[in-house]
Amino acid sequence: MPSFWKHVNEVLREAEIIIEVLDARFIEETRNKEIEYKVEKSGKRLLYVFNKCDLVDVGELKDKTKGLHPSVFISSREKLGTTILKKKILELSRGERVTIGVLGYPNVGKSSLINALSGRGSARTSSESGFTKGLQKVRVDSKIMLIDTPGVFPKEEKDIAKYGKINAMSSGKIRDPEYVALKIIEEEKERIKKHFRIEEDDAEDILERIAVIFKKIRKGNQPDLDGAARLFLKRWQEGKIK
Ligand SMILES: Nc1nc2c(ncn2[C@@H]2O[C@H](COP(=O)(O)OP(=O)(O)OP(=O)(O)O)[C@@H](O)[C@H]2O)c(=O)[nH]1
Ligand SMILES: [Mg+2]
């Protein structure tokens, strides 16, 4: 994605503050340390924003957010935390006019955050990852200008299983759903077993049971693992497996 990095560099040149949007459910996974490093090197301020807080218990996040300062918790969907975020921005800019680049992995809610702050729907959003294609400036008020950007993965990373898990790559675009589903089952085993009321402990056995639950059965009564994995990923990304 070379053009995305061109965008990142352009934003780094233009903005005085960078907001890194992180998914509150997957804070460590959605950190882009290459961007964080670049921001640090450029001498600009980095503000961490934990978005989608409506989907987590904020009280349980303390350990995961330790060391990430300054930071703000928000829910763009529920419009929670936006006043605190504006205050924090003005604190960092010392009340001066400021341009802020909004960066992060695909689908973490960058465009939604911009809409929540501006109170308008100027930045288009979608549940499909990789939706925003170019840079777009949105004015919040007389002091704050935001730049929406396309989501970026770290250059050196190509972790399809992780992208599937955090919804940075939509399920329909994942070529090997079985591999990704098995990785998610491995990492979130207890939660998934509880959700589907499954006793088995081996990831492949669990996926077989899920195939039966989803009625994904081939001729000859064999579980259709590919079909089950695809549906599992879709449901997972819709947040329906809790
Ligand atoms: N539950 C919840 N969903 C959210 C929140 N913010 C965004 N979303 C959802 O997350 C999905 C992605 O939102 P976008 O704002 O398009 O994300 P983005 O980071 O701009 O995505 P790209 O442009 O693809 O990089 C959409 O389905 C949003 O409705 C939030 O605070 N809570
Ligand atoms: Mg977007």
Total number of strands: 6
Number of distinct helices: 10
Helices and strands, in order, run as HEHEHEHEHEEHHHHH
CATH class of the largest domain: Alpha Beta
**Beta-strand content estimate:** 5-15%
Number of domains: 2
Distance between the termini: 32 Å
Oligomer category = single chain
Topology-level CATH name of the largest domain: Rossmann fold
Overall geometry: elongated
- pLDDT average, as an integer? 94
According to CATH, the homologous superfamily of the largest domain is P-loop containing nucleotide triphosphate hydrolases
**Helix content, binned percent:** 25-40%
Q: Hetero groups bound?
A: guanosine-5'-triphosphate, magnesium ion
Strand order of the largest sheet: 3-2-1-4-6-5
Specify the CATH architecture of the largest domain: 3-Layer(aba) Sandwich
How is the main sheet built? 6 strands, mixed
Low-confidence stretches: none
Structural class: alpha/beta
Describe the structure.
With 242 residues, the protein is α/β, with parallel strands linked by helices. The protein folds into two domains: 2-148, P-loop containing nucleotide triphosphate hydrolases (Rossmann fold, 3-Layer(aba) Sandwich), CATH 3.40.50.300; 160-237, Conserved Hypothetical Protein Ylqf, Chain: A, domain 2. The protein is 40% helix and 13% strand. It has ten helices and six strands. It has a six-stranded mixed sheet, sandwiched between helices. Helix 7 (177-187) packs across helix 9 (203-213), helix 7 (177-187) packs across helix 10 and helix 9 packs across helix 10. The longest helix has 13 residues, at 2-14. It is elongated. It starts with a helix and ends in a 5-residue tail after the last helix. The relative contact order is 0.12. The mean pLDDT is 94. It binds guanosine-5'-triphosphate and magnesium ion. Residues 110-111, 125, 131-132, 148 line the site of magnesium ion.
